[in-house]
Batch of 4 targets.
Target 1
Amino acid sequence: MTFSNWYSKIPLLILILANTLFYSCSENGDAEDMDYGPISVGKDLSIYLNGRGVMMQAFYWDVEPRFEWWNTIANKTDEWAVAGIDRIWLPPASKGQSGGYSMGYDPSDYYDLGEYFQHGTTETRFGSRTELDNLIAKAHGNGIEVIADIVMGHNSGGGLQYNPYRDKDTYTLFNQSHGNASGIFNRNYEDYHPNSIHAMDEQALFFEEQDLCHLQPNVQNGFWKNENSVAKYYKNTVGFDGWRFDYVKSFNAQFVKAWTDEVGGWSVGEFYDGNANLVRQWMTGSGINAFDFPCLFQMKDAFLQNDLSTLETGDMLWKTDPDKAVTFVANHDTDREPVIKESDKLYAYAYILTHPGYPTIFYSDYENIEFKEKLNTLIYINRTLAVGGLTVLFSSNEEYIAMREGEGANPGLIIYINRKASKDTRTVITPWINKKLHDYSGSITTGLSTDNAGSVSLKAPARGYAIWSLN
């Protein structure tokens, strides 16, 4: 080929290369330069740091390696503190019936935090008491609060005893020889349903024969009233800062309120239901925060049905109770058969980390190498630009655009989610007059400008999202 023939083909080669680069970026939602213009450099967002953080659910179901989990988490608290994690939610720390295989949701001895040999092991699945103490100290040294998972609805692993209320033997005897080696907060059949007070509480029975009766004085004293109650021991001696209450549907909200009124601490309840009004009723009765399951299920529907307008119209806790709604994308229960598909999780995280509510990150998602950098960026945006009221600017089957209106000198942000297989633009009106904009998600490399009416044609990558704010 002569030089002149080769030179004549340069424009075609450039076009082929440009198309190749464009489509490879668009497919995975990574950074793409739609106009091939000058690279935009955003401003330093640290001036907007607001002191807020996000919570990390610091476990998944059947964590490995067994007996090393407290050490594993302790070693991550330095990194997590830098990322903006201000609370870690630990699994139930006490000995369960399954011993070294227990995830803690089959509680037997609330005071055995890896100190007594029972159920075939001294350490819990997560490690020893000493290792738990070290983890809590390490977290506190990094400015991170530690949240205890409290299972107060049912027990497992007790000894057999004759139960006159059932006219048979039941596993309801908990003492030093039967599943309660600590000898503190011993229990018997009177502490479970049915008993001399009533047949059952107003909620559905859960683990029917070991369903705790919270009206019994022994149960109230053991859980929160005594000076060495579970609540006071965990807070004042062990060093936990707050509570996540497990499966609160199985007992009345008044007992969560009694616990937190007695000892305080940041608290959240697992009212596992997509009906936002039912969750709100529970929050009113308990007086504490709740996980935003309605938001989770609305996001699921939006993505599965390919209708992002659901994100605008669906009833979610954060829309009425932003200060009490704990938003999340996955947890140890929902991720075993994922509610949000892996391919949709970054959309969901982009949504909760730019919207009102207190977001939670799931350990397995954060440790996913494909997600980690993007999640760190979203967490930083949450801690800086995600402030002020929220207005939805546009929603359709495959697009969702919403604005956080900012506060004071903080301009807020606009998030643009695009599920189309190609890049997209959408003209919206903003309060930003004749301003330069930058995509702080890193998806779009070129900047934009608003006109003298605040109008701008926003851009979003294929199957991805962009988060625009002032440059």
Target 2
Amino acid sequence: MGNALFDTRCDAASVAAWDRADWEALFRLAARQGVLAVVYDAVSLLPKENRPPRNLNLRWALSVENIENRYCMQLANGAELAGLWTAAGFRPVVLKGFAVSRYYPVPEHRECGDFDCFLGQDRELGDSIAVGAGAVLEESGYKHSHILYKGLMVENHRFCIGVRGSREAKELERFLEGLLEEGAAEDKVPGTDMILPPVMFNALFLTFHGLKHFLGEGIRLRHICDWACFVAREQQNMDWQTFYAVCDRYHMRRYADVMTAIAVHGLGLRVENPEITVDSRYADRVLSSVLNDNDLINSRGKGKWWERFKLLSNMSRYRWKYREIYQKGYFGEMVQLVTGFVLDRNPKI
């Protein structure tokens, strides 16, 4: 993928002897990892004689077209909803998704699941406006609500991150919200009212969000591509000393370093800022987990209680992630999760 993301050398010899089964396996892996379109961009740079068989290549191209069409639909409907919120005096800040896709060479090739936005204390009023415009409020938790708007699933956030039962997380939440409030000159997704977060917010949010996914259910190559594309574009615009100080405080440093190491050694990211650290000690084990583990929670459709029990099971199964990457004990985190659910049902910061 590096040749598609960072214009690195295309190694055609490595796939010269591939047969149809090899290409089919790559297609399935790319789809499972959320990078089907990005991998196709890389495949398209190969000499014609080294590309997949014609039928698979056509199927791949059609899949990419579907990804592009879905992205455009999501962007149009998300922009429409953001316009309604802006007209009501709210500040819809886009998280992940459209805030990250702009870093990709082809933004439409960054697969987006939901439209994540932050309205903060205006979350409930935002829900009401969306419902008044025809949306369906499917679920409303303490962190965010789920709104279905014209086929687009929207996560409307009250909090940027999960804070229930954790003083540490609440402290980080206050810091993140402070970054959003400090952004005086607000950039927006072109042609929309979707506000783009400041660079430091994006760096910390991507790191914390990715770390929590890694601990609870694993991450995919898409998460690594997000980080790689972000660093490639913003590495000279970041206060890395502050970033690493915050990472050290909230146990995110090893995860950030591993993501950078995989991006450098696996995707060809060129690090040009000497303040950026690359630590490969845990890169192989993390990458193996990314490629081989399959413990997703939120996409199963089996209900909230199944998801909660699956999360606890994952925490126990992948204790090494807590010990080696998060540098915390998994049992203490499990206790905090359960007591927070019981004693801090409606958290405040």
Target 3
Amino acid sequence: MLTIATPRLSPAEWQDVRSTLTAVADCGCGEPEAAGSLRSRISHAVDALIGAKRAAPAPLLAHLHPVRDFLCETGRTRQLAERHVPSLAAQGFSRAQIEALALLGA
């Protein structure tokens, strides 16, 4: 679990966090499996047995890739992904907003 205190944000800052989390909600973490890989073949076999393949993650706008990468790494490591913080700050997120993204999205 992340050990971050709840950040103090204005209503507008919370709205930015919320809209960003909504935009990346269905993007998924990780890249799709390579065609012909063992994972891909198993996935196709399971789909044939139990039904159609689930929908692919929604396409993600390029400016949201750093947010997705930050959330995926934060969720995977259960620590704030500090190496992605500069790219989020460059997009205009404050440190408090970045911590809110981590708390709510990871």
Target 4
Amino acid sequence: MSAAPTTETAPAPAAAARRPSLHGTFRLQWEPAQQAWVLLYPEGMVTLNDSAAAILRHCDGTRTLDMLIDDLQAAFGVDGIAPEVHAFVSHAIERGWLV
């Protein structure tokens, strides 16, 4: 007998224990000309939306993913953002922005 599929929003324990940090070839900075946070790298630049910038600004290698989510929820007075943060961090790791 197989188990019924579930729609789990919590990450695997290994993902939650990650301490994401910006890859050394990238630099996160405020760009006054664009009035936006940007991610700079040798070949170019990525303009970030406010949510992406807030997440990346918290990815300093000192916080686990769960701690990062708690900090963001407290800073912005929201709950339930874990699935979106997990998805973004996974995407950023795939893109090589985070390690």
